[in-house]
From TrEMBL, chains A, B, C, D, E, F:
<dbReference type="Pfam" id="PF02585">
    <property type="entry name" value="PIG-L"/>
</dbReference>
<dbReference type="InterPro" id="IPR003737">
    <property type="entry name" value="GlcNAc_PI_deacetylase-related"/>
</dbReference>
<dbReference type="GO" id="GO:0016811">
    <property type="term" value="F:hydrolase activity, acting on carbon-nitrogen (but not peptide) bonds, in linear amides"/>
</dbReference>
<dbReference type="InterPro" id="IPR024078">
    <property type="entry name" value="LmbE-like_dom_sf"/>
</dbReference>
<keyword id="KW-0862">Zinc</keyword>
<dbReference type="GO" id="GO:0016137">
    <property type="term" value="P:glycoside metabolic process"/>
</dbReference>
<protein>
    <submittedName>
        <fullName>LmbE family N-acetylglucosaminyl deacetylase</fullName>
    </submittedName>
</protein>
Amino acid sequence: MMRSVLAIGAHPDDIELGCGGTLAAHRAAGDAVTMLVVTGGQNGPGPVGERRAEAETAARSLDCLLLWGRLQDCAVQADAATIAVIEDAIRQTEADVVYVHAPDDSHQDHRAVAAATVSAARHNRRVLHYRSPSTTRFEPSVYVDISAHLDRKLAALACHRSQVASSAMVDPEVVAASARHFGAQARVRFAEAFVPSRFVWDLSPPPQLPPALADMPVYQAAYRSRGVT
Amino acid sequence: MMRSVLAIGAHPDDIELGCGGTLAAHRAAGDAVTMLVVTGGQNGPGPVGERRAEAETAARSLDCLLLWGRLQDCAVQADAATIAVIEDAIRQTEADVVYVHAPDDSHQDHRAVAAATVSAARHNRRVLHYRSPSTTRFEPSVYVDISAHLDRKLAALACHRSQVASSAMVDPEVVAASARHFGAQARVRFAEAFVPSRFVWDLSPPPQLPPALADMPVYQAAYRSRGVT
Amino acid sequence: MMRSVLAIGAHPDDIELGCGGTLAAHRAAGDAVTMLVVTGGQNGPGPVGERRAEAETAARSLDCLLLWGRLQDCAVQADAATIAVIEDAIRQTEADVVYVHAPDDSHQDHRAVAAATVSAARHNRRVLHYRSPSTTRFEPSVYVDISAHLDRKLAALACHRSQVASSAMVDPEVVAASARHFGAQARVRFAEAFVPSRFVWDLSPPPQLPPALADMPVYQAAYRSRGVT
Amino acid sequence: MMRSVLAIGAHPDDIELGCGGTLAAHRAAGDAVTMLVVTGGQNGPGPVGERRAEAETAARSLDCLLLWGRLQDCAVQADAATIAVIEDAIRQTEADVVYVHAPDDSHQDHRAVAAATVSAARHNRRVLHYRSPSTTRFEPSVYVDISAHLDRKLAALACHRSQVASSAMVDPEVVAASARHFGAQARVRFAEAFVPSRFVWDLSPPPQLPPALADMPVYQAAYRSRGVT
Amino acid sequence: MMRSVLAIGAHPDDIELGCGGTLAAHRAAGDAVTMLVVTGGQNGPGPVGERRAEAETAARSLDCLLLWGRLQDCAVQADAATIAVIEDAIRQTEADVVYVHAPDDSHQDHRAVAAATVSAARHNRRVLHYRSPSTTRFEPSVYVDISAHLDRKLAALACHRSQVASSAMVDPEVVAASARHFGAQARVRFAEAFVPSRFVWDLSPPPQLPPALADMPVYQAAYRSRGVT
Amino acid sequence: MMRSVLAIGAHPDDIELGCGGTLAAHRAAGDAVTMLVVTGGQNGPGPVGERRAEAETAARSLDCLLLWGRLQDCAVQADAATIAVIEDAIRQTEADVVYVHAPDDSHQDHRAVAAATVSAARHNRRVLHYRSPSTTRFEPSVYVDISAHLDRKLAALACHRSQVASSAMVDPEVVAASARHFGAQARVRFAEAFVPSRFVWDLSPPPQLPPALADMPVYQAAYRSRGVT
């Protein structure tokens, strides 16, 4: 019994910052998790090759599958091309749940990826927006308890050495503080917070993924070899 | 494995109108469900005794427990007394999920019960606001699929004969239309819609209620005799 | 005595879905109504030629004038070119009232047409946003009673056979349910709902259109031959 | 052909400040207008008797009917008693349109009258909130052009001599400036601005009031003697 | 050169939790600061006498003046009596800045004190709402850097021993985490966050308080003896 | 002791309309002020050369430095190029405070400049959005008292003769009325109103600008020659 989860971020490290603990919780619950990084992070500090390797290490540390969107850092538009990249990932993973940036953000790529995901996931029943350090307006109402997973989130984030070293926006101290802040709001110890675009609460246990899933390209080379399904 | 659900309404029929289908879905998933009706509906059409009997029939048709708050119709305040009534019900049921009116409503009792519940449920992890026909502002983001339960909702509502007959606000045609309207928003056939005050999504299956529950006064006379636990 | 009404949609069928009943009510009140379809709907199900013919049949069934914007489906931007197309239609029709998509929508073309119309209609006194099946956030406060016109709305929608047959977003059952849902909110039977950008309520009866109107290109070939003015 | 208009304010001068120009426009369009002042303004500057006389002079200057609610200044609650006073006025006037304070206001009576009116007018199709000098949050979307009626608004306000002389909140200079400010927003010269709770736009000319109206107590002694109907 | 600052809270410890660091920053800038505690905290954990002593110790540790409102815990109403208590404190302190609870809060007293302060401070140019652990909706846009004052905030909070020991809502770990969370939002290390009701930014240095201030009752016994002015 | 202020507008006259009085107040307080006009206003009424000269006269009348962004009127995008222009101005001026358009506006360039500034100023502690005549949604909470500076604002605006003569959006009568309207909200006579993206209130007097500032290119040719620093 498992869900298929898709987390989408504009740059390497965005997903870990926004919902890394929640992804760890999904894996602990036996769900399949795929991360889609839309650009290569060409403009951030650190060379592209290094960032790519960091993202792969981080995804491995969270035991998640990693997909790349191959768009250009700082030039993402919420247009048909970006939407197609995300639709493709939704189709490949048959996603039950989609996580993505919040729409109000000071980074133009984050805004574009959020808007493009709202378009691409128009038929999905669960689309949740996470918070980035650059998010501006954010009034969360949905939370996931990550008390048992904060360590894994911080470990995954630490894999992005080039960012932790050089970006004012990536600060583990703040990540832990925000998790405690939202935890208090959620009446747990540590939490990640979300703004739902649309969240159909499934009262029955998570669905059994169809057998055909294990044969889909996105999972064949990955989960099967790791013995997940 | 079951959750303890508490649904709160100001008058007889409010709960059925707002989340009757969701309560049926909870029962179908094996959860324990309690309805707390805060007043006797003394001012609506129909004598109090009749309304009381209607509510009991409706609760029975949904296979839910029914509690009465004994406050006065049209005179509910969001004060310490009302909060105490609701705190008491939360404590008795050890509620995992609380459903209640939306805060913006043209009925003063609905506003008061919503505000008092936000106070009483301040330590709860899941508080969801449902919509009434008199609700004014309402931007839902959480939904429950009631496609398999709309019939039971309408049947429970039909038990409130005095209201269906005389109140312009209680119209089964509108109830079904709104369920289809929100269903389309939720990407299912029929849905009930909710605004979350706070919703901690539990990724693991619903918790096993502690054995002690079956011994609590609120459940002893009720569920046990019906063989629920 | 008549108003000049302009309804704007990104694709064939958008206007009928959003405000088809209101347009019928305007025609019944003797107002002149023009529909501006910004793109040819090249990407939806059904060939372009067929969709064009469907839109023309639908406009005829509502007895409205139809203008085409000739932009490209799924590639509309809220830029100077799109704004110019809409400004042109506003000028040609000397519009008293403008209807258009709501700004928050999962379809990028809908968002772009809404934003471009807000720009183009900056001097207009009445700009009302309608709801599409893909609209996300929508808190209406203005309504039009379409109890006497729902049939015409559904008939106009049925003209878009290619969409009714193949698009999950075009479902007459949902259209009728939403009309009842909003009708209950408006305290009538069936209603269409709107979010006003700016609505100057004219307390005097609708103005007599200037005689010159009948000589303007947009109306000459159309209304005159149908004996509208 | 006329509408029945009901404007509600907590204290003498509130209605003139909030929608005096609009009431003049309604009278100019041939509509019947009733003002309901909920309290006697016992706590403001000026003796009660003087304020009562000022309100009567102002209502006469606007050629509107004046009703008094007889509640206590600074002690209004949004409870059943206040709601009953307003329901009574709605019933007596068979109101087509209801004007009242905006809900977010620094005066507790204004908040209470706004909330009580939302309750009392739950079956009405047109409820519009006006702005007071003490209103806090206010995002208007509906406007009435009062360019031809600003003088009458200022004249009606000037009747409240005790307030113009002593209250920092009643300043004709600000009233005129705000009318110009909102006029620019509405694309007219002077306007009053409103937040609609619910506004059903009637596309046909305003309804003919039923003949029975002239026989209702509220109008008999008043309009008839002035030759309005 | 100094400002007169008034911070208002419903219960002992509310002010320290919400804006204790900011009050320390005001004192460090040479401003006069008064705390008004509206009730005695009769219902919280700990006896009233003890709570009173804790509040006095905390105020002394922040070097602020302490006033008591003498209303009843859990029974505060936003009525004329509560407004009068706050008006009195504003008048006595000739407050330039007023800090108070945010309006959306799960504690009924917090809601009432926030609403009453908005009424009482209707002529004030600077009214800022702070966040409590029980605040629900809160979208801050104004911040004060308390990096140099977090220690004093935590020390003042620690004076409320009965609360730190027994209330789930008073947790120094969360207080520090939230300060870091809001600090990151404000682009400083630690911050307190505020929602402004009205904030007139004074571009010139803070005004010299009039000499007469030192003679006002509220300051005579207090600041003078401590040599503040 | 002075602040470095940067005001950003899409076209010549936007800054004067939005915050001209505030800039005068900053200059009166001894602050350095730079205006960045992002486009040449090629599409408005009046030839580009004339508009350029008008802007220079206006900046001189306010005693502010003027920078040009050299982007194209009506074609501004919130993309990396626009962000780079603004980042460059922030860097050159070492801005303490940034003023820019409000995000919701009927002019596409205003929307784009607002969004690009939110991106470019992501590390700034004070970003305030001003209102334009074309702004749509605007709920201000921060104000600057311009009672002593309204004349200078109107004089600066009058320098833009081509706009005052021909644009319906540039009307000194409305500018003065809005200043009075917002002044009443701010409890002063005339005010400009702002929506803060982020405003860290500095309780200590404004910082002494570093000596190096006078050597930066942006100030060398300008302020020094005018003897400002």
